[in-house]
UniProtKB/TrEMBL annotation:
It comes from the Bacteria. Residues 20-160, 179-282 form the ABC-type glycine betaine transport system substrate-binding domain. One of its GO terms (biological process) is glycine betaine transport. InterPro entries: ABC_Gly_betaine_transp_sub-bd (IPR007210). GO terms for cellular component: ATP-binding cassette (ABC) transporter complex. This is Glycine/betaine ABC transporter.
Length: 282
């Protein structure tokens, strides 16, 4: 038993308003994420602003460890959440309904290239046009990386385990003969997964692929000005939407590489009476 003077974590109480129990705080991730911008719109859209709800900036890792701690003690917590991601595999959480569609009706992960990439490197471009996996495949890669595997090793294993898919994606793609492909990404788990897998497939085809990690804004800016060729991690239409709008005249959407993505807010399943973002307002 905990003694009276130690801090006893308070369990979630469904009979009390949720707001004060979480100090009107949504636990978010890094500031540059599209999900943060969407959440800043959701707060006023759902009338949470006048109840002083706020979004806490952190990181995916810090958010998940906070989530893990809360779940351990059945405490209340509201987090920013997205799929594909291993958090839904690891934690008993549920998305809150978003009847106003602030986070979009259906998100897809897209490949976005600089204008002129197709002309300069038609072989690599063809590969990116043909690269399309799904959230299961992606989830497995992400989970292996989360478990501590080196992302390049995970990519190599994925390639070995999925010869049919890889053959389809590389069909008609000529040997690279050392031609350069400059990929850019933010170190979010989905982007780490798709960047390493596509980079490795192209390397196996003889392309010289560099991958550079940066923040979301410079990522898009570098593609727009042509100092990078391509990213496989644009969540559209909503999550990466503001960046796409900003740079749409200088970039090109190559295509969807992972359909069925989802972005929003989530809570642990034991918060049984909280099922919609509207339920946060009480
Ligand atoms: N995410 C994961 C990112 C993109 C990938 C949904 C957290 C975001 O911009 O919000």
């Amino acid at each position: 038993m905990l003694s009276a003077c130690s801090v006893t974590p308070k369990k979630y109480d469904a009979n009390k308003p949720v707001g004060p129990q979480v100090h009107e705080t949504i636990t978010g991730i890094d500031a540059g994420a599209g999900i943060m911008a969407s959440t800043q719109k959701a707060i006023p859209a759902y009338g949470l602003k006048q109840q002083n709800w706020q979004l806490q900036t952190s990181s995916t890792a810090a958010m998940c460890s906070q989530l893990e701690k809360s779940i351990k003690y059945k405490q209340p917590i509201v987090v920013t959440a997205w799929q594909p991601h291993w958090m839904f595999k690891k934690y008993p959480i549920k998305f809150l309904k978003d009847p106003k569609g602030v986070y979009g009706k259906s998100e897809q992960i897209n490949t976005v290239a600089r204008k002129g990439f197709q002309k300069d490197n038609p072989g690599a471009y063809k590969f990116f046009q043909q690269f399309k996996w799904n959230s299961n495949m992606m989830g497995d890669v992400m989970y292996a990386n989360f478990k501590g595997a080196d992302p390049q090793k995970t990519a190599k294993k994925f390639i070995k385990d999925h010869p049919k898919e890889v053959a389809k994606w590389t069909e008609g793609v000529p040997d690279g003969h050392g031609k350069q492909v400059r990929m850019t990404y933010v170190t979010w788990d989905d982007a780490i997964a798709s960047t390493n897998v596509t980079a490795q497939i192209l390397r196996d085809k003889g392309y010289k692929v560099t991958i550079s990690a940066m923040e979301a804004q410079p990522e898009w800016a570098s593609i727009a000005r042509g100092s990078a060729d391509v990213t496989t991690a644009a969540w559209l239409p909503v999550t990466s939407g503001p960046l796409y709008q900003k740079f749409k005249n200088q970039v090109e959407v190559v295509g969807v590489n992972c359909p069925g993505a989802k972005v929003g807010l989530a809570v642990p399943k034991y918060m049984k009476n909280i099922n919609s973002i509207e339920d946060l307002k009480k």
